[in-house]
Amino acid sequence: EVQLLESGGGLVQPGGSLRLSCAASGFTFNNYAMHWVRQAPGKGLEWVSGISGSGNVKYYAAFVKGRSTISKDNSKNTLYLHMNSLSPEDTAVYYCAKDRQTLVTMGNWFDTWGQGTLVSVSS
Amino acid sequence: DIQMTQSPSSLSASVGDRVTITCRASQSISNYVNWYQQEPGRAPKLLIYAASSLQGGVSSRFSGSGSGTDFTLTISGLQPEDFATYYCQQSFSTPFTFGPGTKLDI
Q1: What DSSP designation does A74 have?
Q2: A25: β partners
Q3: How far are the Cα atoms of A2, A31, B51, B92 from residue B67, in angstroms, in the given order?
Q4: Closest alpha carbon to B37 in B66, B17, B57, B67
Q5: Which of A37, A79, A103, B41 is 20 to 30 A from B105 via CA?
């Protein structure tokens, strides 16, 4: 069974940093691109970042570019998102999602999602 | 960035009804649209990919259609478990934007 389990969320002060993790199981991790999608309280879904199966190609939404880094440790079957300079607008549940293909390219879809981890940015 | 809009934003229906949700892209995106269902407090679930293909394990009550800029998700014979929020998402180019969602309730 394909499973994704996020961790690393919590309360952080504005300007602070956080690293989210997503432990994957049930599939060959290095064969699939992975993504982070977030959802602010009471709001819709927002794609944050994606990374190719190999981990070599990365994409970011404009609102996190330059202050976040997505990475993938294929030896540990784990996806990461390191976020810096956090603001209250970053408060959200962060989901990791498995892509249906190896590359972050057109025609993808997110076929498996984790349960999410809540990031709260507040003083 | 490609903008995705959905209508209606909310919809009231009854068990057994047939409902249609519309999604529109700000530019032509071929058939690169996916649909997700999200129940309250749960992670999203893939229903339809590539505009009209049913994800494995998803009820055949769900169907999708469209190409270019206009897409629809239709749910036939509504069941109690179908009352949720539905999102379209474009996979034509990054950033992979989602529509604002359509909340379906009783």
Answers
A1: T
A2: A3
A3: 31, 29, 7, 12
A4: B57
A5: A37
